Amino acid sequence: MTAAVALQNVFKVYSTTPVVNDLSLTIQPGEIFGLLGPNGAGKSTTIRMLTTLTQPTDGQIFVAGYDVVKQPFLVKQQIGVVLQQMSVDVDLTVWENMEFHGRMHHIPPARRQQDIDRWLEYVELGDRRDDLVKTLSGGMKRRLQIARALLHEPSILFLDEPTVGLDPQTRRRLWEIIKGLNQQGMTMLLTTHYMDEVEYLCGAGFSGSATPNRIGIMDSGKLIELGTLDELRHKHGQGLVMKQTGDRWDYKFFPTLDDANTYFEQQPHKAGMMVRPSNLEDIFVELTGRGLD
Ligand code: ADP
């Protein structure tokens, strides 16, 4: 089976600084891959290389089996892209944005109209089709971006912080849309600052899926961790003892929650201590040494 995404020893160097530093990674068809990392880790640069917006300084990148440097047009046909910046035209209507994108991709008129209707319905914007985009809420604009990214029937969707700045209800609706697309077989690579988003979307493959979803953590241009959520929790420890010292918390990981409880019970001074199951954020902070901002 051809990998959906394959990076082999990829570097991106600005001036003399490698902002992506020897990155190798393979994503299988059907996977939702969550890419995490603190600001400046190189996530957006990685997405920009995968989506042909910038070229790698060294190394090879294949998307849907095509070389992003040598076959960028074939890559573009296979991918949908939702970037952080709102790329929809706010002075056009919802429908005009879709129509413009459909024409750019040379989708024949009859199919284009059918698919515009289908995807607008899917993201619940059917009744807003004639409204100017500037009158839509942030969540609606994001849903329009997703509908537009899907119009030319890509096999891989790239989502760079898809729910940043949205309220909790809107985020959850978008999660359902993203999960639903994956259940229909869409491969996805997503970056986010929200740990709950990664746990929800990349925590486990949906039932019946042969492809386990994985999480990658980048720091300073390097992939410093890779695995399923279960693998990461097993590796770093499923139990956690937190201890408050002054205004900071020290974390101690244990293989299981029982082990953490046993350790806790043995402590003569339990004041300022707490036991709980570990989560992705704990692992992230442990690995990168700082929280997300
Ligand atoms: P992330 O998405 O993980 O926050 P980025 O990929 O945006 O990280 O940035 C990684 C590093 O590359 C940052 O230090 C950023 O300043 C630098 N960088 C990104 N784009 C450029 C550019 N066009 N020219 C120079 N430096 C850049």
Which secondary structure elements does this structure contain, and how are they paired or packed?
Elements: E1 5-14, E2 17-27, E3 32-36, H1 43-50, E4 58-63, E5 66-67, H2 72-78, E6 79-82, H3 94-104, H4 109-122, H5 138-150, E7 156-160, H6 168-183, E8 187-191, H7 195-202, E9 214-219, E10 222-227, H8 229-236, E11 239-245, E12 248-254, H9 257-266, E13 273-277, H10 280-288
Helix pairs in contact: 3-4, 4-5
Bound molecules: adenosine-5'-diphosphate.
Question: Any overview of this molecule?
Answer:
The chain is built from ten helices and 13 strands. The protein is an alpha/beta fold and 293 residues long. It has two domains: 28-56 and 64-233, 3-Layer(aba) Sandwich (Rossmann fold); 238-277, no CATH class. Strands 6-7-8-3-9-10 form a six-stranded mixed β-sheet, with helices on both faces. The protein has a four-stranded antiparallel β-sheet with strand order 2-1-4-5, covered by helices on one side. Helix 3 packs across helix 4 and helix 4 packs antiparallel against helix 5. The protein starts with a strand and ends in a 5-residue tail after the last helix.
